[in-house]
Amino acid sequence: MAVTSAFRNLRAPALRGRFSLHDFLERWRDALLSCLPGGLRRLFTHRKRCLIIVPQGATARLLESQNGESVAVGKLDPQAPGSLQALIAGARGAKQRMVVRLAKDQVLTREVSFPIQVRDNLAQVLAYEMDRLSPFQAAQVYFDFRALEDPRRRGKLRVELALCPRTQVGDWLRRLRDMGGAVDEVTWEGAWPRANLLPAGERPQRGSRFLSINTLLLVLVLLLATAALATPIWQKQQIRDQRAAQVAELQARAEKVNEVRAALERARRGSTEVLQRKLEHPRMIDLLLELTDRLPDNTWVQNLDFRNGEIQIRGESTQATALLNLLDQAPGITEVAFRSPVVQAGNSGRERFHIALKYSRPEGL
Predict the structure, then answer these.
(1) pLDDT tens per residue across span 130-139
(2) Are residues 267 and 140 in the same domain?
(3) Residue 299 burial by Cβ neighbours in a 10 Å radius (0-12, 13-18, 19+)
(4) How many domains does the chain have?
């Protein structure tokens, strides 16, 4: 709540009065300093000193303000030789702000009302309507204003206007300016915070020391805001990188598992294929038993070859042509045919044959 209240005064500079970069930086400085602990706040504010000139006829009363506390330091007589020069030289040496404070009865304040549409050009509208709002022209007065928020009167903008004739303070401003003095502010007793009758164009530009402190605080706020905005993004990026690394590791493990699984599958298929081929391969002992049962007693087998799935039988028999029918009826034997013509084997009465056939394991074996 304290931080919110401290920065509430930074809203809508057009409604607070005439705006300048110096006022904005001061507002930022005060808002930021109010959020700091007391010791740290005093470290930044111990040099914030102000010399107040209170005109009283031909002379003026001098006050020195530091951190909101004013102390009387004497009187100023413009007719006294060197008094103004000493005042200005002292203010320069201490790097003090110079403020001219008028009495309350020297400033005219009143409340006026405007349509809400003029809020962005309120200063120009007040200058243009000054002769209607006061007995003076805009060029004859110093003025300032602030907007009064009133939610009950929608469509209307209530403005508190404060002005004083230039003749009341012009002589003092001119004397100080001729001596090289820079008046930062013209205010009055009971003025609202940040009130300044001096136009923005006549206010001096402060040196780099003031700007450096405000700039440092502003940069600090921007860095903190950037860090606050970037931290969640950075955290999400870190989490995303961690998740990506975990996913990559899991993918590598999955690929290794797939490789091992593929190797196992190849090994299984290889072993299964060997077993399948072994089961499908005909057993020669079965073929020999079948030939022994099928071939007649007058038949001799001299040679039996098995090559590329084909079996070739050479031998002699008294009934070679009948062997085709006998072998073709045997289970597992197919495509029985003579490989060469049958010939007589001398005077033995037997025939030489060369038969080719294919043999596969019969079903059920």
Answers:
(1) 999 899 999 9
(2) no
(3) buried
(4) 3
